[in-house]
Amino acid sequence: MKKTLITTALLALLGGGAPLAFAQADHDAHHGGASAPSEADAKLSEGTVKKIDKSAGKLTIAHGPLESLGMPAMTMAFRAAEPGMLDQVKAGDKIRFAVERVGGALTVTALEAAQ
């Protein structure tokens, strides 16, 4: 009996992700697969750089709602994931960016010029 419970638990742990993978593949196929926007593009928000503080490693961005974080539109400072990001932009630039919580701090993890 004990051996059966352990085997069942191991199978559940090892095989638990397979149904999710199949469901995601089915979902992607239903919604156009490769022609749909990439997940990375979907996470990018639009904003305008207001200030760059290289010594603090931060940039201030006026942005629309950040739906992935449940935040309304506002202007706020974010930590840059990499110092080189601060050299890619200047105050007044329109950008597309991604923000994630890294070590408890809101951090810009992707940055590109807006089209």
TrEMBL record:
Keywords on record: Signal
Entries under InterPro entries matching the protein: CusF_Ec, CusF_sf
Signal peptide annotation: 1-23
Gene3D superfamilies, sorted: Copper binding periplasmic protein CusF (2.40.50.320)
Protein name per its UniProtKB record: RND transporter
Species, as recorded: Thauera aromatica K172
